[in-house]
Structures are given as structure tokens and as C-alpha cells.
Amino acid sequence: MRDVSIAAAGITPAGEHWESSLREMAVQAVQETLNHANVKTLDAIVVGNALSGNLSGQNHLAPLIADYAGLRGVEAFRVEGADASGGLALRMGYLMVASGAAETVMVLGCEKVTDVVGSARVKASATTLDSEYESAQGATPVGVAAMLMRRYMYEYHVSVADFANFSVNAHGNGSKNSKAMYRNLIKADRFAGAPLVAEPINLFDVAPEADGAAALILTSAERAPDLTDVPVRILGSGVGTDTLAVHERPDPLFLSAAKLAADRAYRQANLSPSDIDLFELHDSATIMAALALEASGFAARGEGWKFASENRITLTGDLPISTFGGLKSRGNPLGATGIYQAAEIVLQLRGEAGANQVKDARIAMAQNLGGVGGTAVTHIFGR
Amino acid sequence: MRDVSIAAAGITPAGEHWESSLREMAVQAVQETLNHANVKTLDAIVVGNALSGNLSGQNHLAPLIADYAGLRGVEAFRVEGADASGGLALRMGYLMVASGAAETVMVLGCEKVTDVVGSARVKASATTLDSEYESAQGATPVGVAAMLMRRYMYEYHVSVADFANFSVNAHGNGSKNSKAMYRNLIKADRFAGAPLVAEPINLFDVAPEADGAAALILTSAERAPDLTDVPVRILGSGVGTDTLAVHERPDPLFLSAAKLAADRAYRQANLSPSDIDLFELHDSATIMAALALEASGFAARGEGWKFASENRITLTGDLPISTFGGLKSRGNPLGATGIYQAAEIVLQLRGEAGANQVKDARIAMAQNLGGVGGTAVTHIFGR
User: Could you tell me the pTM of the whole model?
Assistant: First the structure.
């Protein structure tokens, strides 16, 4: 396999974009990204999107975006794995370049959630669960995550307040990110009293679904210097899966897909958790952040929450996470989230993260989860 | 890139499977395929599916299938490009093996259409068109194809009856295929008088949507002999796209995505149309068969229909098509269609096609279209 680098990254604001359609947001991200690299031709566009068929009545999305972006005819396809779609699209683009089948590939994540509101939106989100054994009984992703959090609190004797700093940190970092959805600060002592969403998960705990689009340009490491002065290398790439239904897992409090994905990426990169300078994890709820830290080798079982309570996750901590706000503050644009994570890492590794910069960041990891951990995609990047 | 071979193919019957769920059909195809090869481990499952989010309330499909097939944890993801999803999944599996990232990959196409009937089904199918400029105005895939057929008949002075042999041939071949959905014969002189679906497309002209699942096992050409005595090589692989909305195309009667995809596959395989012994094309309607023959270099503009009227497409003709019934008789299981095509070609190139055998078939091509030609995927295979 050839080595692959990211030559450019483009981020559009995550949020509620009532004035923009899915295709408009996607085109905006394509153009924003093309502005950042000296690219003449693209061989393919890989689109990560979770729910356009249900939320926008639009399947067959990739050729539409290629056309509207002025790239009619280019190879284009969509990859879907719930909110891990963006990470999966990155992996496919990576493999296209690594194989030699393509020289230059755009990987785009896009999601338009605000075209549908209320119960129809919840129903669409629930299509990422097991349709026969979870969503048919009324389960939703946040409801299932809430059951995990309840069990975790019981098993490890922790309280809601112990998770507070995951959100405090995310909003602290997001407050400095002009592309973030919610830039307000959260106070730790207000966290446990926030309005409930799915007990014990509350409004300050769960990440908001967002409209958003972001993109990357990948090319071979050899060719990358022709496109940019600041390429970022993809060092490892791994995908793991698990049952969709959480109740089918022998050990529901362990995200085995995340462990598989992380181990596969570590092995390829020949690195271990101690080498990671920052970690963009999938904080769709604080419990998912805690479990991701455990499954990915940073914390022992039942101790992931301490990364928050001991305040080790800030920009100056031993493992900065959610450095641009994470899903919680920047927003969770579902199938675009994995591309936002990678694009934010590009800024960190280039030293272009401004007020969000992690000092001397050289190795960074992104982990994108689908559903409640049915899919996990992990990438490790180096400058 | 490494050379890649198909080590095994498994086909389940296409049809109306009221008794089976999507996951059950998928698992059946996985098991059927594993029975045909000496495979110990799989590195990944790539799932091609068009509409499960809309028709089964199930996105995030790939990990679910991996789990139910007894392969929990394996890398798994879904590729979506309308009814070209199967062909796209094959291409992704091909690239995974070609890159060296995977040794052995299963590529699965599956679709469950009969969970939804009537206008809800039509609405789901229409999500493969442009949601803002086609389906919002009531357009459906067959309705758009009907407009192309009408225009073709006008431009080239042909009649509905001139297309008859596309369906006569398909049903003649399908009548000998135990996996085909409709095994009845069609008489040429009854074709033009069949009940209308979307004038001038009638019931004998349009392919039926079907439930179905089929799978392939891919591995490196070097390793294939360990898995099977009869590997089939993938010689070329190409994807092209076009506008989703047919009215946006400068020349609506030319499937430019099909030309791009075919040319890319020919170039990689270093072959031309005259080398192709049989062609599994996307006969979702007879007009699409005629246009595919033109765009792929077999017929001049306006002359694709003559392949039918001159009866050149039978098993003993100069270009056999739809050798197991094609979409018309075997059925069109949307996102599984591209895998059915490839699996049928495997049987042909191995000389295992029985009553459907094309004599001395050595090089075969499959072309899978999405929507009304917004996506085209072409693969060329050799024994």
C-alpha cells in the first residue's frame, strides 16, 4: 500500500442551517476545501452521509453532489454506517489512494437534519439501531446510551456530576471555534441539574444533532507536496463492528468495536495509546466518551470518567479531547462528524488551530462511532 | 495494485419473499457463499443496499448483517448508489483486496422491497432521483425512463415492438434459471400490447423490483487457488456518474456515466467491446438496455435497439445479454442487482451455467446502473 496524506481540509459551520439544503451545504464544503489545495483534477468523491434517504428523501446522493460541485462524471459513491459514515468514507478514500486506483480523492461528510423535526427526526435517528429489536420497541440512540450510563454509574459508583467536565471541556474549547454550533460555556456545578433528555442523560450531556459539511483532499504522500506545504499523513486506519442491539452484547459497558478499530489502527501505525497527543473521540454523550477512552486503551475499565473528573482532557492536559468542541459543542452532524474530526486534527497537526491549539501536537487520533457503538472507525494521523 | 479474483459466488432466489426479513435473506446469501469456498477468515464485509433506510427502517445495516452471519466484529460498511449499490460494493471490495489492506473480503448485495407496498414503495424508489427537481414533482424512475423511451422512439423512428426481443430473450433465459423471479416466457407479438406502466413502458418492458441477496468472496489472485479450483479474475473496474436529473443532461439519450464507467474498465483491462463474450447489462427497462449498448461501445447512437430486433443477444448470438434472465426476468433486487450480475458471470466463466451457458465464454462484462443512469459501475471479468 502507498502512504497517503491529507492535502487539504475544509470545514463549514455546524449548526441549524434553515436557509441551506443538503446539496448546498455539501457544495460549500467542496469549494471551501478546493480553496486550500492546488488541485487540478479529482479522481473520485467519497460521500459520508447517514440519513439523507430518511431526512431529505434523497438517496443516490454522491453523483448529485458531484454534479452540483461542478465535477459531473467523476467517480462518486456514498458510504453509510450511521454517524460513523464520515469515518468510513475517509477509510474508503484512503484505500482508493493507497491502492493506486486513484491519485487524488475528495472525502466529503454532509448531513442535513433540520429538514425534519420532532418525532419524525427521532424516528429517522432510530433507524441506526436494530429495527426489529430496538427501534420497533421505541428505543432511540440517546435512550440506549442512557441505559449504558445508568449501568455504568451503578457498576462503578459514579454520579452524573462526575461526567460534567466532558461537557465543560467541550464547550470551553467550542467557545473558541467559530464553526461550532453551541459556543456557550457550561459550568460544572450546573451540569447535573440540567433538564433531562433521557434520564440520566441531560441537555448538557448529550451532543446536539447538527447540519454540517466538511471535506478532505487525499493524495499519495509522494505527491502531497505538490498540492500543499503542510501535508498530514494517515498513519493508521481501522474499522470494527459490534451488534447493533446493545442488549445482545455480552459486556454492554465495553465498546468492543472501538477496541477492534483502535487496535487495528495502532497496529498499522505501530503506535500505542501513549503516543497519542490528542484524541478526537465520539462524545455523542458523556458516557460514550468515557467508554471510548476505556476501549481505546487510555483508561482501565470503569475509569474512563476520571479523565473528566481529574481534568486531564483539556488543551493542556495529558490527553486533550474534543479540542474544537467535539460533538457536544461543535455539534454532531452525524455522517459528517468523522470528517469534522479529521479536519480539526489537520489544523492541530499543522499548528493552525489558533486558540484551540494543542502545543506540539504531532500524533493525533480520531474515532468515529455509529449508532451506540455498532460501528467504530479509528484513524491515526501524523504531521 | 494486486490482481484480485472471485473465489466464490452465492445466489439466493430473487422474488417476493414475504416470509423472510432483510437480515435473514442477507445471512442466507452469506452462508450460501461460504459453502462454495474454503475460507477460514474474512477481513471485511462490504454491503451493497439501496433503500433499507426507507423500506425497512434500517440504516447502519452492515454490522447487523455481520453479527447475524456469525461474523461479529469484522470490518463492515454499506455502500449506497441507488440500484448501482451492488456494483459499487464490488468495487470497494476489489479495492480493499487490491490495496493489500485485506486478504479476503465478502461483498454482499441485499434488498428487501416487499416490506412496503403501493405508493410508499414508489416514493422510496423515487428517492434515487433528484429530490428537489424530479421526485418532488412526482417523477418516478420508470416514469423518467418512459420519457427517454418516448424520445428515443421519436428520434430514431422505432416502435414499442422493436424493443420486444430484449424481454423475450430475458424471459427465455430466465425460464431456465431456478433463481429467477418470473420464469414465464414472453411472446414477441404480445409485447406491444401488454398493460401500460408508464407509457410507452409496459408490464413486459419494465423489470420487477425484487427481494434478493447474493454475495461474492474476493481475494488476491495469488491466494485464490487456495480457496477454489475455479477462480475468476477481475480485469477491469470503473465507475462513472452523471446528473441525477435527466433533464439536466445536454444529451439525455446518451448514458454518459455508462460510457465513463465502461471506458475506465476497458482501459484498465486493456480490452475493447469486441473482446466481450457476454454482457450483463442493467435492463431495468428495455430502453435502458438499448442505451447501455450504445454508451458502452457495442452499438452506434440510435442503433442499440437493433441488438434486440436482429436477435443478436441470445445465448448463441454475437453478444449474449441477460443470460440468467437479467433484471427483467431474474428480477431487480436494487442494491443486490450488481452482485447477482457478477455471480452469474462467475457461473458463466466457470462453465457452470448449465442450460444458460454461453459457449466458450472467457471475457464477460457487467454494468450496474443507479437511478436512471446517474451512477454506472462496470466490471470486466476473465477466467
Answer: 0.98
